Structures are given as structure tokens and as C-alpha cells.
């Protein structure tokens, strides 16, 4: 592979230029998401290279829910990755970003979603629908869909760093493994059945590829039992090192383990990473507004301090929702370390980015960067507490541009009818 195009295995928060980030915060305000499209390209290139996507005919599909911004979707498409969508909205965004074929993995799809997706399909978009329930297959048949269909299988094994991101074993996702072959068979009468699909959750790590191997090998067995297919999609969930000391995922090892566990199948292997493509391509910038030693006396030394910042769980939900660790760096100044709790402005105890983590003691107006914010960052932002969602800028080579405007307070009430 072209080592330069693929870049290093991980970009750490320390690798970002503090001066450049500070300039962006000055120009665009905070909180601000910064997304580096060059890093998105590198991650896409490294994924394709690890799986030998060109020579071995492996299909790498980007799970767009990790970051659906237009610039990211276009960049990922140009980098040769397909699009895996989880809702009608994502299908529409992917098609609008220039994809002419998309995969739509329908989890308990609302009628509106099916109608919107099928409208696009009738208009000529190539859509592969992944159904995770016999009932979903029936609803597609009732709507006159006879196109490309794949069956999502519940493999009965899950990978994941937190129970909320482990989907493999939960009955919500997919058709029970033992019933999948029969459903594939039945569906062949009415649809173009192109594949089988499974996704175990997020957090495949290099130390523990056993659950992953188990899932893939079960999918290989199923593929061999149902006969020729276009693809076997084994999902995403490739982990990224959120902690600075964590080693990056050995993508080559994951690719080798995947191919080995799959065994010989009359189908193309497909993978659909989301997080891996964008996580380390993004940082969140936030400014300190309040500094409060826990005794509120201005004491120095080792007394822990709470640093209030202008981003919160409404800006980046992962710490509150998953207890996720994100690296935090003070871009303004280096001072002696103290235990620091970085807290947002939302009236919820969970609204913390870290608790009593040793770091240079922040002062008011310091600029902090929160790392690995590119995946499930902006996507999970909300307007709880009537907080407008942040702005986003994208970096592309030496160009910088505003990708998403900062939401306004007026915008928050735009949908209210009784004003
Ligand atoms: C979320 C999701 C993915 C991507 O998961 P990551 O952990 O971001 O790689 C892939 N496939 C399906 C069906 C998903 O729901």
C-alpha cells in the first residue's frame, strides 16, 4: 500500500496543532467541532489496504451514522467506501452526497422510513435493504419492493466496550441465527436476495478477537448453507484507542482473522466500520468559563478543581451515555497538574467530560480540545436545556471551511406553532 496515503495507525490529540486549533476557536467560536478530511481519507485508505479491498474484492462500507456531514460523506465516497445507512434520513443524505448505491439496514423501520427509501428506489437509486425481521420482509413485500434484499442475522455473540453498544446478542437486532436460512430461502421467491448481514456491536479490539472470530465463522457457516450470495456483511465495530496509552487496532490482524474465520464462501466479504473512519479525524474545542476548587476557596496545590466549559453532554454525549473516556488537552497553557473535573453547563450530574483527571489546572478562558470526537459526536448532539448545537468546520489540505453553522436560540423555537 501507499504508506503516505494511509497515514499513521492513529492520530492522537497531541498530534493536532494547538496554534491552528486556537485560531479556529477565535474565528468560529466555541464549542466547535473540527473535522479533518485528510485524516478521513487516511483512515479509509488504511481500511481498504488492510482488507486488500482492491485485489480480494472486499467491500468496505462506511456506517454513515458515525458522522453524516456532507463533506465527510463526499470524502468517504471519493475514497472508495460504500454507504451503510440506518434510517431514511441517512439514505437521503448519502444519495444527496453523490452515492448512487446505498445499503439501508432497517432496524424496526417506521413506515415513513420504508416509504421514503422505496420512493428513492423507484426513482432509480440502487438500494440494498437489510431486513432484521420476517415482519420487515413482509412489509417490504406489501409495498411492492422486489429489489436487493439482505437478511440481518442475530449471531448470538456480541463485541463491545459497554453494554449499550453491544448489539450482537440482543433480540432487537436481526433474525435468530437458526431461522435465518429459512428466511433467506423464502425471500428468494420475491426478492433479489444478495446477502446476509450481522453486526455485533462496537469495540472490536486487538487483544480480543475471539468474539469477532466467532461471529464471522458463524456467518461463514450460514453462507455456505444458503448457497451463492453476492456478499456476507460482518458489520463494523472496529475499535479506536480513546485512551492515549491504548495501542491502535492492528487492522491487518483484524482483516486476517476475519478472512480466516470466514473460510471459503461463494460471496464477497463486506465490512461496515463507522467509528474507525472518523473518530480520530475530529476534535471538539471548548472554552473554560468557570473554575471552582471543590472547596470553592481558590486553594491551590492538590485540591481538585471543577472546570466549567461551554460544551456539555448536549454537544458530546458519549461520556454521559457510555461512560466513554475522551482525552482532553489544554491548548492554552501548561501549568502544574491538579485533579480536574471538566463539566458542562447542563443541569445533569452526568454532564461531565472527566472526573478528577490529573491535568494542567485550567483557568478561565483557556481553550480545551477533546479528542476522538469525530465519531458519534455531532451526530448525537441535542438541544436539551435549549442549547443550540455547535458549529463544525472542516479542514481539507490547507483549506478551512465552515461545514455546519452554529444553531441559534431563535432556531430552537422555529418549529413551535403557537408563538
Ligand atoms: C453502528 C453500526 C455500524 C458501525 O459501528 P462502528 O462501531 O461505528 O464501526 C455498522 N453496522 C451497523 C448495522 C451499525 O448499526
Automatic annotation (TrEMBL):
The modification N6-(pyridoxal phosphate)lysine is found at residue 65. Signal peptide: none annotated. Its cofactor is pyridoxal 5'-phosphate. This is Diaminopimelate decarboxylase. It catalyses: meso-2,6-diaminopimelate + H(+) = L-lysine + CO2. Pathway: Amino-acid biosynthesis; L-lysine biosynthesis via DAP pathway; L-lysine from DL-2,6-diaminopimelate: step 1/1. Homodimer. Specifically catalyzes the decarboxylation of meso-diaminopimelate (meso-DAP) to L-lysine. CDD domains: PLPDE_III_DapDC (cd06828). Keywords: Amino-acid biosynthesis, Decarboxylase, Lyase, Lysine biosynthesis, Pyridoxal phosphate. GO terms for biological process: lysine biosynthetic process via diaminopimelate. Its EC number is 4.1.1.20. Substrate binds at residues 275, 318, 322, 348, 376. Coiled coil: none annotated. The active site is at 347 (proton donor). The gene is lysA. Belongs to the Orn/Lys/Arg decarboxylase class-II family. LysA subfamily.
